[in-house]
Automatic annotation (TrEMBL):
The keyword RNA-binding applies. One of its GO terms (molecular function) is metal ion binding. It comes from Maribacter ulvicola. Residues 731-762 form a coiled coil. This is CRISPR-associated endonuclease Csn1. Signal peptide: none annotated. The keyword Coiled coil applies. Keywords: Antiviral defense, Coiled coil, DNA-binding, Endonuclease, Hydrolase, Magnesium, Manganese, Metal-binding, Nuclease, RNA-binding. NCBIfam families: cas_Csn1.
Amino acid sequence: MNNLTLGIDLGTNSIGWAIRDITASDNQIIKKGVLIFDKGVGEEKGVEFPKVKKRTESRGKRRNYQAEKYRKWELLDFLIKHGMCPLSIDELNSWRKYTKKEERKYPQSQSFLNWLRFDFNGDGKPDFHLFGSDKHESYYLFRAKAVSEAEIDKRVFKDNPEILGRVFYQLVQRRGFKGRDEEEAKTMLRGSKDGMTKGRDAIADYIKQYKSLGAALYHYQKEKSSHSEKIRIRQRYNLRKDYENELKLICKIQNLNNDFYSKLHKAIIWQRPLRTQKGLIGLCTYEKNKRRAPISHPLYEEYRTWVFINNLKIQAPEEWEHSKYLIQKIYPIFYKSGNDFSLSTILKQLKKDGAIVNSGYGSREKTKVLSAKLLKNFEDIFGENWQNELGWHNAFLREKQPKKKATTNYSFEDIWHVLATFDSEEKLREFALEKLKLSEEKAIKFSKIKLQQGYATLSLSAIKKILPYLKKGFIYSKAVYMANIQKVLGTYEVSSAFIEHFATEIDVIYEEVSAKRKLNNVLNGLFKYELLAEGDYHLGSSQDLDVSDYSLIKQKLINELGEKTWEETIKEDQADYLDYISKEYKSFLQKPFQAKKGAFIAQPRIHQHIFNYIQEHYQVADENIKYLWHPSEQEKYPNASSYEKVELKNETVYINENDIDAFLKKKPNAELEGISLKLLESPEPISKGFKNPMALKTLHKLKQLLNYLLQTNQIDAHTRIVVEIARELNNANYRIALERWQNQRERENNNYKKTIEEINKESGTSYNSEDKNLIRKIRLWEEQGKKCLYTGDTINKSDLLNGEHFDIEHTIPASISFDNELKNLTLANKDYNANVKGKKYPTQLDNYHTDSMFNTRSIQPIIKNIEAVFGKRTVEKKIIKKHGKKEEITVVKWSKITDLEKQIDEYVKKTSYASTKEIKDVFIQKRHQLKFDLDYLKQKIQTFTVEEYKAKWRNSKLRDTQIMTKYAVPYLRTVFNKVEVQKGNVVNIFKEVYRVKMVSDKKDRSKHSHHAIDGAILTLIPKPAYRDEIIKKYQLEKDNHTGKTYHEQPIDWHNFKPIFIKNIETETLINNLKDYRTLTPTFKKVRKRGKIDYDENGKIKWAKGDAIRGQLHGESLYGAIKQPKRDNFGKIIFDDNKKMQLEDEVRLVMRKPLLYAKDASSPGFKKLDDLEKVIVDKALFEIIKKQVVKAESFKEAIEKGVYMLNKKGEKVNKIRHVRCFDRLKYTTAVQPHKHTFVSDKEYKQTTYAQNGENVYCLFYKGNVKGKEERTISIIGIFDLAKLDIQDEREFFEIPHFNSVVKKKTQLPLCAVLKAGQKVIFYKESVKELAELNKEELSQRMYKMYQFESDGRIKFKHHIISGSNTDIKKEHKEISSINFKEFSPLLRISSGGWNFAIEGRDFEIKLDGALIWKF
C-alpha cells in the first residue's frame, strides 16, 4: 500500500492517528481516531510515581507484619518447649496454622494473657514486687533486671523461667532498625529532622553505663520523668545491633548456652537476605546475553576514568610516549579519597608538563571530575602493589577456555562482592580481620567503604575487552571497534603492531567517510533541486555540464561546508571535491526522469567500511560483521515474527508461526486461512534497558492499534509511517523538570501581560495582553536589558509594542536556519534591520567588533551589547596541536553561561552521592531545569557568533533526537519499511502552510480530537526533500516581514480544503481504553528457594492468584461510639439503675495527635475552633481551652504542651492524642477486622474504615405500569471481595443481584456499569442511533465517571480532555442532555438515563468503528 501514509501523534496517555490515501478522489483522510488510556505512571498532588509503588508499599507492610508473626511463632514454639511460656503447642498451632476457609485463632487462655501482662501469679497486676518495686514501675524493669549481675535478681529468673521467656517475647515485638544506607543510619543515630523521633545518640551514654538497651531505656525514663510528665520511650529509633547485644548479654548472665542463644537469635534477630533483583537488570549494549555491570565495580570505575582521560584529547609532551604519559602522569591524579575533584587539577599538571588539551574541556577548569575513590581505597588498604596482590591483571586475560581459579587468595572482584553484599560495617570489619588479615585500623577503613548504586550500559565482559585499548590512549569509539576484533578475525591473540596499524586505518576510514558524506549531501541536494524544478533538465550522452552547472555545484558545496571551511580547504582537495560531484551530477542528469527519482545516494556507514577493510585484508566470513561492535550502538529489537490467520469458533486470531503446530494440535477445530503477516511484538528492546513506564505504556497501546490496522488490512508493511512524539514521554525527572520550567515561563508570561496592561494605561493604547507575539516582544526586551543588541539603543516602553521603531527579527535568517524559535529571535532597531543587517549574520556586520556609524551617529559594537544577554565576555589565548602543528586559538567565555555550567557540575556532584532516591531525584530535576536555561543561552550565543552556517545545522533543527525516538523508530521498523519522525514545530509550520491552524490553541488542546488533527497533518508533510523546500519558502516569507504566511496545497492533493482537517474535531469518536483489572487474576512464576520451578516437560510452572486487585479500604481505622444523652442543662442522663443513657446514633471516631497544623496537609489542628468542632470529650476540651487561653496563641500552647490536671490544678500527664469525630458515616463505613477481644456491644466488635473505590454500578431497568423505571446499586471493592466472584457476568446469576424491587415490581439487572465506560444518549429509541452520522454520534457520546449514592450518574463528554476539577471551573454540571449542543459535564438522575451502553448495545473497535449489537 504505497499510496497510504499513517500519521501518528504519540502523547503521554494518548495516540492520535490518521490514514491518508493519495488515490482517494475527494477527502484523502480516509480514517482517523484517538486512543486515550491511563498513563503508565500514577499521579498524586502533581507528583508522579510508578503505579506499582503503592502496591509494593502495601505488600511491604503486609510482609513486615507477617514476618513479625513468623518470628513470634518461632520464638513461642521454642519458649513452650523450654517451659518459658504458659501456652500449649495446640493453642499456638491454632494461631499459626492456616486452614482454608477458617480463621486463625489468637490464644485466649487466661494464663497466656496474664503472661503477656507480666502477671505471673494471676493476681491481675504486673509482678514488679518480685524485684522489690511498686506498681508504678515500667515494664522495662524486667529487661533491666535480666542483665543484672546481682544474685538476688538472677535467682528470680531462675525460679521463674516464664519471666525470662516474657523478656525474650518483648525483644521479638520490637527488634530495632537497621539502616539501609548512610543517610538512614545517620537519622537513626541523630533522630528525625522534625525532632518527633529520637535517635540512639539520646541514650548512647545510658547504654554505655547500663550495658543493655532495655536497662538504658528503663533508667532513662526513670531519670527524665517528672511528677507532671512521664517520658515516653517508644517513639525513637533503636538499633538492631543493640537488641542483638542485649540478647547476647542476657544469655551470658542467665547462663544460657550457645545453642540456646543461636535459636533465640534466629527467632528474634535474624533476617532473611533480600531476593536478588538480577533478573531486572538490563542487558549489555554489545553483548546481548550478559547483564549490565554495577557502576560500583572497580573495573567500571577504571573504565569510566579512562574514557574521561581520552575524551580530554591530551597531546603529550614531545619527550613522552603518549600512553605512558597518560598512565604515569594523568591517571594517578584520579586516585582521590573524595567523590570528585576539579578539572583544574589535571589542567595544572598538563601545563606544568607542557602537554596540550585538544578538547573543549581545556576552558572548563571548574568542571567536577569523578574520582577513582574505590581504587584509591584499595591502594590505601592493600598497598601500592594491590593490583598484583589482588589479581587485577588476570581479569584481562582472554583465553580459549577460562581456567578455574588456581589460588584461594581473594581477588579484587571477590572483595568488591563482599562490599556489595555484606549489610553491616561490623561484618565487613570481621571479614577484614579474619579473612583478609588486615590490621584493626585498616579493617575499620575497609568497613566504611561505601559503594555507589546503579548500573552501566555495558557488561563486565565488554568492559574487560574495551579497557585495555582505552589504556593505550585510544578514544572510546576506536576502543569499541577494536575490543571484539579477535572474535571478528576468529583468533584469540592480536599483536600490538596490528592494533597500531588498525587504529591508523580507522582514522583514515573516518576521514574518508566524513568527506564522502558531505559530498553526498551536496549531490542529494542537487538531485532534489533538479527534481523540484519545473521541467526536466536532461543531458545527452555526449553533452557536458555548462558554466551555470559548475557554478551551482560550487555554491552548493560552499553551503554544505561553510564559506570559512571552504577557504581553508587546500586547492587539491577543492578540485577533487568538485570533480567527484561534477561526474556524479552529470551521470544523474543523463538518466531518464523516472530513474532520477531513485537516484539519491545512500550515505556510507563507517561500521560497514571498517568491516569491508577487515574482510578485504584478512578474509573473514560475511556473518562475522555481527561481532564487530559499533560505538553508537542503538537499542535493538528482534525481527518481527510472521503470524498465521486462524478462524476459531467464528473468531479470528493470529498465531505466531513458531507456535502454529502446537496451537492446531491443542485446537483441532481451528482452521488456517492461509494468510500470513508480520506484526509488532513487545516494545521492550532485547537489552531490557528501557525503564520508562509511561513511554512503554504508550508503545504497548501503539502496538495494539497498529496490529489491528494490519490485521484488518487497512495498512501494510509498505505504508509510510510519520510519527510525532511528545517531549513528556521522556523519563519522570525530565518531565517534572520540564513542567516546572514551563510553569516558570508561564509565570513570567503573566508578568509580561501586566507590562502590556501598564503600557496601555500609560500610553492610552489597547494592545491585547493575550497576544503571544507581544508577550514574546516583552520577553526579548527584558532578556536584552531593554536595548537593541545591534545598535545599543535603549528601547522605551512607549516604542516597544507599536512596531514602528523596533520589531522582532531573525538573528540567522529563517530561510537559511529554518529556525523560528526564541533562541533565533532578537528585538531590533527596525531601520537598522531593514537597511544594514538584512540577511547577514551578526558576525558579518561592520559594528560586530568595533563602533560604527549608522544614520550619522555612532553605534556600539554588537559583541559588547550582547553581554546584556550572556554576561561579561572574557577572552584568552591557548596553544593547541592540530594536524601535527601548534596553533594559537582564542577561547571566549560568557559569565552567565559559565555560571550555569558550574551550577550543573555542582548538581552532578550532588547527584553522585545523594543519600536517598528522593534527594537524588530533586538534584536531577534541578539539573534538568538549569540545562534548559543553559541550552537556550548556548544556542542563542551561537546565532551571534557563528561565522558560517552549514546545512547540517539546519537539518538538526528538523530532526527529533529524544530518548523516546531512539526506541520508537527501530521498534516500528521491525514491521514497516518507511518510518519518519517529525518534530512538533514542523507540524505547527505545516498547519499554517495548509491553513488548518486552529484559532485558539488553548481551546483546541481542551479536546482529545486535536491528537487526530495532528495525525492528519503528519500525513500531509511530504518527504524530507520536499518538506525542507516548503519550510524554506515559509521562513523566507517570515524574513521578508510581509505579515503574510506562505501557503500551498499538499502534494498529490489538488482539491484539498482545510475543512477536511478541521472537521475531524466533530467527526472523531474518542476511544477511551480503560483497563478493568479488578477481577483479573494475577499470575506469577513458581519458585523454590528463589529459583524458578519447572514441570516434567521443562515448562515454567505458573501460580494463579484468586484475590482481586485494588485497595479494599482506606488505611485509617476508626472506632465506634454512642454519645450519652444529656438534659437541657447539658448533664448526662442516667436510668433508675444509675446506668448512663446513650443516643441511638452510632458515630465513628479516631485518635488524632494534638499538634499544631502548619498547613492543610499536616496532622493536627490550625486553631482551637477546629478542635472544638470534632473533639469527643467536651470536658477534656475545656481543660485544653483553659491552657490555650493562658498562652499567647494556640500554636504556642500546643507546641509547649497541654496537660491533664489533678484536683489541685497541677499538671499530671501530657495530652498527646484526642478522640475526634469523623465525617465518615457508620452506615457507609466498611468493617475490615473483628476485634480479638469482643465487646458485648455489637457496634464495638469491629474496626471501621472508608470503603475503597466503587468498582461496579448495577443498572436495573424494567416496566412498571407501562412506564420504564430504572435504578442503580453501587458495589464497592470491599463488598466485591467478600462475594468471591471471578467474573462480572456472575452478577446476572446471583439472585441477590440479578433483580431489585422498585415500586413493588421486580426490575431485572440490565447491565454492569463501570467508571470510564461510554454511553450514547438517544431521544426515543436506542435503534435511532444506527441512523446517525459520526458527527451526530460524537455529539451524544459521553463516558461515565462517577456513581453517586443518591442514584445519580455523572458524565463527561468523550471529546473533552483535562481533569474533572479543572473542567468544573469553566463548565457547570447540567442535569439533562441537550441534543443540539453538547455540554461538557452532565449529572443526571434515573429519569434521563436514555442511553445505549458500551459492551451491551455497541462496541468501539480500536480504529474507532462502531459496531451495533441491537
